[in-house]
Design goal:
This protein is mainly beta. The protein is built from one helix and 23 strands. Strands 4, 5, 7, 9, 11 and 12 form a six-stranded mixed β-sheet that branches. Strand 1 and strand 2 form a beta hairpin.
Length: about 325
């Protein structure tokens, strides 16, 4: 104010203002129900599975959420200094130049072993309310998986909310029309043929290969089994006939197994049996005695051939050695 006679004078008008501070007495809180999703039954690799969970708001204020956000500097809660912000803006400009102005940075954390899709992934939970979220997940690798999914609430940056998804991924298997192939009797050195039908009852395609576990794949000349085709692919619901040849490599009554291996899947074991026999025969009598024979008068004797094996035998009777004065003829067997 102005001074008059050395004394300060109050201004003609005085303005007053006040500030009122109010605090929300209720602490902000939220939780996930259930906090763990367990897929107890093994699921097919790359086959989508759908489950639901709920985000629950424990206070009367609306809370925003972001499920499975990017990590590191791209995290929505990351605190960046001025230099880091410049780097981020420069990175975004280059990406838009490369992919077009409509490019949007990744909205979720990328994983190689699993694919996650949330509906919705971002949104808000009303005060004292809840939101049901659907998650579709598929596994890209075989085996057990434990996936931690962050649920970020911007109003609760210091609190960690995590959803755990546990699942076991298995590969597809091919169905065979039989689990036992009987090749019967196989002559030594020859082969027997059989057939089976392979069917893909899975909702996803598969690739298969027929293998003899006891025979190197590269040693085809000595392979006991020949498969036609040896490998192939089956779409969902498709069938294919496979022809199998079993070689008679050694005399024995054998019972073995071969394998139908599925890429990134389960193997199917097929049993086989065969009786491999060597042809065997004998002739009786082994010595034919014609006794005294008159000249120019034929003498007749019989010999008997017996097949000792269970396979048919092709034979031929040949005169190996005879004196020039003797003529030997053989009739066809009866």
């Amino acid at each position: 104010g102005e001074e008059e006679n050395g004394e300060s004078k109050l201004p003609e008008y005085v303005y007053c203002c006040g500030v009122r501070l109010a605090a929300d007495p209720m602490e902000l809180s939220a939780h996930i129900a259930p906090a763990e999703i367990v897929n107890a039954v093994p699921m097919l690799i790359r086959q989508p599975n759908y489950r639901e969970f709920t985000l629950v708001n424990g206070c009367n204020r609306e809370l925003e959420f972001w499920l499975d956000p990017p990590r590191g500097e791209d995290h929505p809660g990351a605190v960046l200094d001025e230099e880091q912000q410049k780097v981020q803006r420069k990175k975004l400009r280059k990406l838009k130049e490369l992919f077009g102005p409509s490019f949007v940075p990744p909205q979720s954390f990328e994983r190689e072993s699993v694919e996650l899709l949330f509906s919705p992934q971002r949104g808000s939970v009303p005060g004292n309310g809840s939101v049901t979220v659907g998650v579709t997940f598929s596994m890209n690798c075989l085996g057990a998986h434990d996936i931690d999914v962050e649920c970020f609430f911007p109003q609760l940056p210091q609190k960690s909310h995590t959803l755990l998804i546990s699942a076991i991924a298995k590969g597809p298997a091919v169905h065979a029309s039989t689990d036992l192939i009987d090749f019967g009797i196989i002559p030594l050195g020859e082969e027997s043929e059989s057939r089976m039908t392979l069917t893909n009852h899975n909702p996803i395609p598969l690739s298969f290969r027929c293998l003899d576990p006891n025979q190197p794949a590269e040693d085809l000349d000595r392979a006991r089994y020949i498969f036609l085709p040896q490998a192939g692919a089956l779409k969902a619901g498709q069938s294919l006939e496979v022809t199998i040849y079993r070689r008679g490599d050694a005399c024995a009554d054998v019972r073995e197994e071969f394998e139908i291996a599925v890429q990134e899947g389960e193997s199917t074991i097929i049993a086989s049996r065969a009786s491999i026999q060597k042809p065997s025969a004998y002739i009786t009598p082994s010595i034919v005695n014609f006794g005294t024979v008159d000249r120019d008068i034929a003498s007749y004797q019989e010999v008997h051939l017996a097949n000792l094996s269970a396979v048919d035998i092709q034979y031929e009777l040949i005169v190996i050695d005879a004196p020039p004065t003797v003529a030997i003829g053989m009739n066809k067997p009866t």
